[in-house]
Each structure stands twice: as structure tokens, then as C-alpha cells.
Amino acid sequence: VETTLESLDGDSIKLTVAVDETEFEGAVDAAFKRIAREVRIPGFRPGKAPRKLLEARIGVVAGRQEALQEVLPDYYGKALAEYEVDAIDQPEIEITGGVEDGPLTFEAVVPIRPRANVAGHGSLRLEIEAIEASEDDVAEQLDTIRRQYASLVDVDRAATDGDQVTIDIEGTVDGEAVEGLTTSNYLYEVGAGAVVPEIDENLRGTSAGDTLEFDAEHPDEEEDATLSFHIEVRSVQERVLPEADDAFAADASEFATIDELTADVRERITAMRRGQAGMMARDRAAQAVADLVDLDIPAALVESEIAGRINDMAMRMQSQGIDFAAYMEAMGQDLSTMRDT
């Protein structure tokens, strides 16, 4: 078998394959034997009719066509492997010889994965944040630890974001109490946005003893209802952080002094960043190179990726005992709509 490769314009190549007549003749002979098992000829048992008789009955071309269907995919596959062709779609194959007699020859135009030309990559420069922890980094982490040991102190002023307010809250819809929105002595952080934004908007600027009444949109988009709130503010407290001293360090860690705790925090931050630096450099280099690439992705490659992802999803569901067709039906989708999304 002789194979040649020719690069074509665009993202495709042409393989030309020539199969020796003697080799192909063996495939033709095997094809006639298969045909003999299917064709009934008086006086011969299935599979025993001689080739000459079959050629006279159905023609030589019929046997060669059968041989072509059998061996052409194998020869094509070997040609791909020989030249390590990264095919992304089915080829356009033209039989150029061997249909009626002689050696088999064919040409296959194959769409291949496009190769990106990256201009300017030699001048790329990447910036990675400093690995060593800065003073601000250390201070921020120490403040996080201090907040875990903070105490709440009553204040005689209006509530602001970050303050803790103790409230009695009643949330209703059409006069009916809503489960989870009606309770007493509830400690709530102003600005947390835990339920609906209107709660924070109304709590800002309030003081102990204030009573609030307001409406808000229901947080569940499927609920076509308005929430009505009645809130009584019992107290306003602020979070007071402990001093960053030796006593705090001994209470919050295994260290006896704040200097030791600070050094440990610095080392931990630096070690974490050192571990992340390699991954960050790789990701940023990949993005920087990708930004230099001007490439039109072939439709066949996109379709192949979509099909692969859908197949992977179906296999994962099957492994979990979920019927993929039933899942799509429940989601109101079919393969066509899934591919579009």
C-alpha cells in the first residue's frame, strides 16, 4: 500500500492511497465468498458456488463493490495513523481506480483540527502578584481571627451596616404569617442581605425601641405575592474586636505572643501563595497566548465537542441509574434544544 499526503487550502488535507492489485484481489475473492453464502444457485449449497459462476450471474463489479465497502475504512484508518492526521469530521472519499479492474486507488479529503498561528508570543510578559505576604495581607487575616473573638456591646446610636440588632420580626402574606419570617429576639446583622434588601434598607438608621412596617417583593420569583413586615427593634449592638496583643494570641491560638501569631500568619499566607503561583502563571500564560490567536473554529469541531459533552452527560446519568431520555423529557428538552443551549 502506497500513501501520500497533500496539504490543501484551509484546514484540510488530501490522502491518496494505492493498494496493490494482488492485495486487493484477495479482498475481492473474500467478498465473493461472502456473497456466495447469500446467493442461492441451483445445484450448489450456500457458499459453494464458484467465483466464476457468481461473476457471470451478478457481475465482477458487484464483488469489487463488496470488497471496497469492507476494506476501504481499514485502509483509510491506516493512512490516518501513518501520517498522524487529527481528523475532526468524516472525509470526502473518491474512488479513482479499481471499481471494475486493476489496483484500488482512492483519494480522501479530510478536515483537520486547525493550527493556530500565535504571532508575538516571543514578547509576552506576565505579571504575578508577589508571593510574600504584605503587611496589609497579614493585618487583614489577623482582623479575621479577631472578629471570631469579638464581643457585642450595646450602643446608644442609630444602627449602621455591621451592627447587630435584636429584633422581633413578623412577615406575612395577605395577613397570614410566613414560616421562617416570624420570630422574637432574633439577632440580625444590618447589611447582611439575608432575606430581602428592604429589611436592611429599613433597619439602617433605626434605634432601640423603633417600630418598622413596610412591604417587600417575595424572594421566590415563582410566588406572585407581596410580603408585609412588622419589626420591633429591641437593641443595637456593635462588634468590638479584642486588642491584637499577647493575651489575644494566647486565647486564639497555640502561640504565647502576638509576634509569634503574626509570624505564623505571614508564613501561612506566603506558603499558600507559593503553592498557587505555578498554577496562576500557567493560567495567565494560556490566556495571554489565547488572546493572540485569531482562529475560526470549524463547525465540525464545534459539533464534535457538543456531541461529546452530551454523550458524557448521558453516560454519567446512566452510571447513576438515571434514564437520559426521561431526564430530557422532564426538563422539557430534546437533543435539538439541548444542542442549541
Automatic annotation (TrEMBL):
Pfam families tied to this protein = FKBP_C, Trigger_C, Trigger_N
Annotated catalysed reactions:
[protein]-peptidylproline (omega=180) = [protein]-peptidylproline (omega=0)
Keyword ATP-binding in annotation: no
Keywords carried by this UniProt record? Chaperone, Isomerase, Rotamase
Transmembrane segment boundaries: none
Which biological process annotations from GO are given for this protein?
'de novo' cotranslational protein folding; protein transport; protein unfolding
Recorded GO molecular functions are: peptidyl-prolyl cis-trans isomerase activity; protein folding chaperone; ribosome binding
Q: Record's family?
A: Belongs to the FKBP-type PPIase family. Tig subfamily.
Stated name of the protein:
peptidylprolyl isomerase
Q: Which organism is it from?
A: marine metagenome
